[in-house]
Design goal:
Shape: globular
Strand content: under 5%
Structural class: mainly alpha
Mean pLDDT: 94
Order of helices and strands: HHHHHHHHHHHHH
Largest sheet: none
Length: 229
């Protein structure tokens, strides 16, 4: 049975509850994706919901370096209270895929420093940091493309995606697909790049899920949207 967490629970109590939620079978599955924990994420979210927003506790949980604690920290944070330097340091520490993904999507994207961080990270020498810059760029491609040079992005993808490290490659491929989906004038070129590079062409995709292979991804989403191909 889960421990009932009070609003001002300390780090020790949160770590104890997370330890009680650890499931060896879940850990084995997560470790195949590079995530070093066995906590069910629905239960982790429920814990964070009970804690509510607590910026000081979030900082203390992040400082433990423990993956589940960091995931809780992200969920109970106030994104606007982090400085750009703090978010940069956190991103560079976030080597676990789920922590990296949640930090970018739940904190950085809601930060007033998001555009500064996007441009700072985009061409970083560390491919994991650069992948965050590409993920933030993909968000702009889909929602706020004004000021982006989409043709240049396609040039970079065409030149570098094939040989990029896995996580950077994934982010670049996501950007490629979103250019093709959201920008009809560039769709033919995005499809051609995907077909030529064949990145993630053989990626195992469960039934009823869309392949991450960009030509299939673009074509399927455009079909669902009912927009001209």
């Amino acid at each position: 049975m889960a421990i009932r967490v009070a609003p001002q629970t300390g780090v020790g109590e949160v770590l104890a509850e997370l330890a009680a939620l650890e499931d060896p079978k879940a850990r084995a599955i997560n470790e195949r994706h590079g995530d070093d924990h066995g906590v069910n994420l629905s239960q982790l979210r429920a814990l964070a919901k009970r804690l509510k927003t607590q910026q000081d506790l979030a900082g203390e949980l992040w400082s433990t370096g423990d993956t589940p604690a960091r995931l809780v920290a992200i969920l109970i944070s106030r994104p606007k209270e982090y400085s750009a330097a703090e978010l940069d340091a956190m991103l560079r520490e976030a080597r676990v895929p789920k922590v990296h993904d949640w930090l970018v999507n739940y904190v950085v994207k809601k930060s007033p420093h998001v555009e500064h961080l996007r441009t700072t990270w985009f061409a970083d020498a560390d491919p994991i940091v650069a992948s965050a810059g590409w993920s933030l760029t993909t968000d702009r491609v889909a929602k706020n493309p004004d000021g982006l040079d989409l043709s240049k992005l396609l040039d970079l993808i065409e030149a570098h995606m094939k040989d990029a490290p896995d996580r950077l490659q994934w982010s670049m491929n996501e950007c490629l697909a979103n250019i093709g989906i959201h920008h009809p004038a560039l769709r033919a070129r995005a499809l051609a790049i995907g077909e030529r590079l064949e990145v993630l062409k053989d990626y195992p995709t469960p039934p009823n899920c869309t392949s991450p292979y960009a030509p299939i991804w673009i074509t399927e989403i455009v079909r669902r949207q009912g927009t001209p191909a």
